[in-house]
Amino acid sequence: MALDLLYGSLSRIQVPYRRHLWLYHAQDTAGSQCQPFREARFLPRLNAHFGQRYTVSATEALSEFQTAQLNQRAARHQLERVVDLQAGKGQPWDLVDRFSATAEFKLPLVVVRPECAGILRDLPMDEAKLPPASHSISPYFMENSDPEKYIKKGFAGHVPYGFQRFGDSSKKLTNSALCDFSSNYRRRQSTEWAPVNVVKPDPPMSINPTEIYHKHVGMLPNYAGHVPGCVFRFGKTYGNDTRDAKRWLRGDFTS
């Protein structure tokens, strides 16, 4: 059954059987418009059609789906017929059936040597062990020889040392940039950021921690306590003036 669609430059399309037309109601074959109703079920092959009305796309999709189903059914019937002919259950109709009945390989295929069927399954073979997964290691701190040391496409973050590289693929460019970053990071970690080694012991403390007025060290500027004789002296900074502050108590009134 064929339906002439007289809209646009469409040619004749083979319409599926009536029992499959649950998508629309065809009024006649003289070019009348098909009135579709909204159907929420799945329509096979509809996603492959675009640029046409929904009715035309649905008709073509159903036609292609039905044609594919008929081809698969015909191929299955042909295979069953070849099996029956080779088994002697029927008579060949044409030359193709005669060649199929006298073919070298018979259907269904059988195992020629059943004793060798389990060799591939039972024979042990040494395989290389897979390396353990390293999903928790950042590519910034992987070894330079690691093949996974690169940044995946789509990463929108900063790539260190990547601004001066161009003309390479993303994988090669990011791998080179990360290798330079790791080398520079480890070099600075071992030189600039390494802990300072003590060459000689610290000198003995000349300041008693429990003493307030030290003899050789002045007071801090934010000290709010009493300093003997401080209100009668001037011309020096607070740190120099408060050095050996107890001299005022000893009778030394020099500034």
TrEMBL record:
* Alphabetized UniProt keyword annotations: Cell projection, Cytoplasm, Cytoskeleton
Superkingdom of this entry's organism?
Eukaryota
Q: Is Protein biosynthesis there in the keyword field? A: no
An annotated GO cellular component of this protein is: microtubule cytoskeleton
- InterPro entries in alphabetical order: CMI2A-C-like_dom
- Localization annotation: Cytoplasm, Cytoskeleton, Cilium axoneme
Pfam families found in the cross-reference section: CMI2B-like (PF10629)
Mostly located where?
cytoplasm
Residues annotated as domain Ciliary microtubule inner protein 2A-C-like: 219-243
Family to which this protein belongs: Belongs to the CIMIP2 family.
Question: Can you name this protein?
Answer: Ciliary microtubule inner protein 2A-C-like domain-containing protein
